[in-house]
TrEMBL record:
It is found in: Cytoplasm. This is DNA replication and repair protein RecF. GO terms for cellular component: cytoplasm. It comes from Alkalicella caledoniensis. ATP binds at residues 30-37. The RecF protein is involved in DNA metabolism; it is required for DNA replication and normal SOS inducibility. RecF binds preferentially to single-stranded, linear DNA. It also seems to bind ATP.
Amino acid sequence: MYIKKIHVNNFRNYKNIDIEFKNDINIFLGNNAQGKTNLLEAIYFLSLGKSLRNYHKDDLIHWDKQYFYIKSIVNINDKDNTIEIGYNRNNRKVIKINGVEKRSFNDLLGFFNVVIFAPEDLLLVKGSPSLRRNFLDQEISQLVPYYSKLLSDYNKIVISRNKILKSNKADLIKTLDIFDEQLSNLASEIIKKRIDTLDKLKILASLTHRKLTDNQENLTIEYLSYLPERDIQKLSKQQIRESILLNYKENRKKDLEIRSTSIGPHRDDIQLNIDNKNVRKFGSQGQQRTTVLSLKLAELELFMSQKGIYPVLLLDDVLSELDEKRRNYLIKNIKDKIQTFITTTDKEDYLAGFGNIFNVNNGNIIF
Ligand SMILES: Nc1ncnc2c1ncn2[C@@H]1O[C@H](COP(=O)(O)OP(=O)(O)OP(=O)(O)O)[C@@H](O)[C@H]1O
């Protein structure tokens, strides 16, 4: 899939631009704070219906304006499709795919796919478990669009359960029983989907990691859950449901003390190991970077294996962070295969030969 054209109106520091892209490597070149990442954000929004860094949608509207509007022609399997998104400061939205109106931003999920690799992703290894959960959840949401609804339903019930835990309601136990039943249904679906997806992703990441390290390192990935069963990947959804229900009940005393839901998919994590050692704790900076690159390349391949088509790749200022060997490997893997958008402040040597350069200057594009 690839983006043919984009029209960006009142989005971040762009007032009104139209750009045509090649199904190739496209480079946004410009000094700092000119709007390179903002363009990636517009592309990202078309895919996931949200801001890149979880900013409120109002922040995406140009400061001097009341609404933003993005329209794009996206080619998927040789067919042109139109995606249109309008949003105003009164929270009114218009979302259309091929002219058909959609109810929510979540309805965009799964139609047009992107993978983003930005400097912040280097925190995937070192950062908090929520970053690793988000990484996996975002991947699944694009592959299985109903997953994001599962997650949001689950999170809403956790919030309500926590409110109840903080209250002194007379029928507290009865209410918790109801919540735990609902939670265990959703939690088992979420955990099962995460484990199934991770099972595929980890094979692809491990293969890539081997290639990136000349067969020197073995990357393995584990899903860490509170559940006591050892091999939870071998459990059926029903078995996960029963186990989690039991554990919600067993943890109730603790939950009542801390007034919060202490177990569940919202607390799970993913552990990344190189040669059986946790990369977060023991990995060098270089190993952490390579691990993240392996994960990102695995994401691209997972899309290909599940959907039969590559997503669009957004590389925000990361090429300069990689050493020559990893950078060359990445470029070799995307060239002539994956439409890629690269932001950069300098016309580095390794970009020579890529013809599609867009000079970004204070919210304007100079071709
Ligand atoms: N809602 C908005 N309305 C108008 N301008 C905005 C808005 N949000 C951000 N900006 C402007 O966009 C600029 C940043 O653009 P962006 O993050 O795309 O820069 P960049 O070219 O990627 O820079 P860098 O190379 O430093 O990462 C900010 O300096 C800010 O002035």
